[in-house]
Amino acid sequence: PCMDARKISDLGTCAGLIPSNHLLKRKQREFWWSQPYQPHTHLKSIIYKEEFVGCDQKFFIAGFRRSMRLCRRKSHLRQQHAGVCSASGCLSASGAPYEEVVRYQRRRSDKHRLIVLVGPSGVGVNELRRQLIERNPSHFQSAVPHTTRSKKSYEMDGREYHYVSKETFESLMYGHRMLEYGEYKGHLYGTSVDAVQAVLDEGKICVMDLEPQGIQIARTHELKPYVIFIKPSNISCMKQSRKNAKIITDYFVDMKFKDEDLQEMEDLAQKMETQFGQFFDHVIVNDNLQDACAQLLSAVQKAQEEPQWVPATWVS
Ligand code: 5GP
């Protein structure tokens, strides 16, 4: 009964990407995908289908930049509709829900891609990063962070940290050159784009963990981040695996998770996936640290060696 819903279905048909059984429903004058529709997953799978029929060129839709909310106003909608139909390519200008993507195959001469690990606190992101680097330190490396605290006698500038003034740190922060930062005991700490670049320049794979809010700063053609979401399994699996893990590894010995903590972790993971899922290139369920580490290793290898979807702006 409403024009907007028809237009949205037209948009899907004309781009050949949104199936008719996933029409939108109207809710409080806003448009939402009908549940349990997961736009990015679905669109990716459709893109792969296209690939099978030999259209391995450019595609207009890869995922949703924002949340599942599509748009609020008719004019906004018309703009998107016109953009997709015109085959004019990239719709990734701020506010548009789509971005153009291409298949990117890393050549030998290209730098490695940054590997970003994202996940709720307690799920083992830090530990997985540590284990990955420990397995092959000549291949994997963390970036050297910046800090405003003073250097200790046994430390070396550029090894533990880059020691900088508060002014320098803040200018990096405000210039969007810090991928993440935080304050600890009155001092600033953070990881800069340049520090990541330095690892990649050495021909190594830089591995870092990030809050999901930092993904967008990292998403540049220079770093070409491959984002891996580390997700907890369901609560009963988590309880069991942590019980077993206490016996076989030191990692969980001090981690006494209460049921509320596990629930909180699961809720946070769900929120992260809803809000930032469109940026995740790969998802690993960590219900066993050793398996998760093996999966991580194989995902990292694939990210560097096999073609992956990336925003078109990264390769043009
Ligand atoms: P320390 O001064 O003892 O070397 O580090 C103290 C704390 O600074 C660490 O426990 C950690 O919480 C924080 N820290 C160290 N490096 C970084 C970083 O790169 N980013 C952020 N956000 N915090 C860091």
From TrEMBL:
Record keywords, A-Z: Coiled coil
Coiled-coil ranges (or none): 255-306
Keyword Coiled coil: yes
Segments forming domain Guanylate kinase-like: 112-301
GO cellular component, one term: adherens junction
Source taxon at top rank: Eukaryota
Entry keyword Magnesium: no
Name of the protein in its database record: Membrane palmitoylated protein 4
Organism: Lynx canadensis
Entire-sequence positions represented here: 208 to 523 of 528
